[in-house]
Amino acid sequence: MKKIAVIGTGLSALSLAHHLPSLDITFFEKSWRPGGRISTRRHEDYAFDHGAHYIKEDHGIIGFNEYLEKIGATKNLNGAFCSNIQNQSSIEEKRIIVGQKGIESIPLKFHKKLRYPTEFSSHIKKIESRNHEYFIDYKNIPTPNFDSIWTIMLAFDKRLGSPFQFGYHLNQEISFLMNQNFKHEFFNEECWVVNMRAEWTKEYYNIENYVLEDYVIDKMKKFFGSSSKAIFKKSHRWRYAYSKKSLLELSNKNFIESIDHRLYALGDWCQGPSMHDAWLAGKKLAKHFSELRLQI
Asked: What is the largest CA-CA distance in the chain?
């Protein structure tokens, strides 16, 4: 049985391992935990899902929601949602899927269920150098373009008075915000995760964190007419937040493949920006292995 190294433990990598038969797989992960951008950051009693936010119930990918429910990684919630806050769109009840104990429950439970050895905090310093001809159809492989996103985590000492719990387009700078209290079931201070627009992030990519945090706090307090005081603030950039166009859209390919079928590249960027796209990316590569009848 050949050994397989999977570099990274994002959802596409976990999905690939899940959809393959039992093999000699080892994960190599630069972080101390699995999941990539499916991450929950904790500070004292606060919890923030500061990467991926939630899964839609109706995304149409068969088996994804059901498997996560089966392994106890998720729960279903109803939340007050506004599709366009700036344009005063009506608020509706939206049913979503979130992590059982933060969004990180999804990769943590998934990875644990696989039971494959994992080298955490490991850095792949070098992969054997090859020229571009090593990859199939290398002349036509497009370069995916990724948007960067500033993300801000905030806790206020009292309610802001928001009529919605999550929504899009608060103003020209803020693309999305989501209340964390109803997801994590704590009811003291009010916690929010805020995403800045990609265009704004590009223009203010090197803004000082404290300047950005104070700016967003001021914008939110003014919008809601609140006298709340921010008692916790933290921000960071997601450099590769999501791809503008997937590899599938750019080239009609589901992954990048070497001529000798020994090296593959995949991720959510192969199919789309959402968690179910990552699941689908892993599933499609596993199907490709099966069709090739590889001796692995």
From this structure: 65
Q: What is the mean pLDDT of residues 18-46?
A: 92
Give residue-wise pLDDT tens across range 233-254: 999 999 988 888 999 999 999 9
Phi and psi, residue 242, nearest 5°: -165, 160
What average pLDDT is seen over the chain? 91
The Cβ of residue 82 has, within 10 Å, a number of other Cβ atoms equal to 23
First and final C-alpha spacing in the chain: 6
pLDDT at 293 (0 to 100): 65
Q: The pTM is what?
A: 0.92
